[in-house]
Amino acid sequence: MQSIHAIAAALLMGGALAAQAADRDASFHPGELLSSNAEYREAWQDLVKNEERLPDWLIN
């Protein structure tokens, strides 16, 4: 059940980031926020740290 929550959170975050990207430029990538902001990266890692069935590309 926890992996469903993680996937839902990822989709919501992706949607929010996509909406932000529309305001910026077309070359925005959702991973930029995780790599550029330590607080977002830490929150993401806390969310997925116990998820064993998620693919690596989603965890990282």
Describe the secondary structure blueprint for this structure.
Elements: H1 2-23, H2 31-36, H3 38-48, H4 56-59
Architecture overview:
- The structure is a single chain.
- This protein is mainly alpha-helical.
- It has one domain (2-59).
- Helix content is 72%, strand content 0%.
- The chain contains four helices and no strands.
- The protein is globular and about 30 Å long.
- It starts with a helix and ends with a helix.
Number of domains: 1
Kindly estimate the percentage of residues that lie in beta strands according to DSSP. under 5%
Radius of gyration from the alpha-carbon trace, in angstroms? 12 Å
Helical content band: over 70%
**Biggest β-sheet strands, sense, barrel:** none
- The mean pLDDT is 74
Query: Which class best fits the helix and strand makeup?
Result: mainly alpha
Q: Number of DSSP strands? A: 0
Spell the H/E element sequence: HHHH
Overall spatial form? globular
The poorly predicted ranges are none
How many helices does DSSP assign? Answer: 4
Distance between the termini: 20 Å
Provide a quick synopsis of the model.
This protein has four helices and no strands.
What attributes does this structure have?
60 residues; mainly alpha; single chain
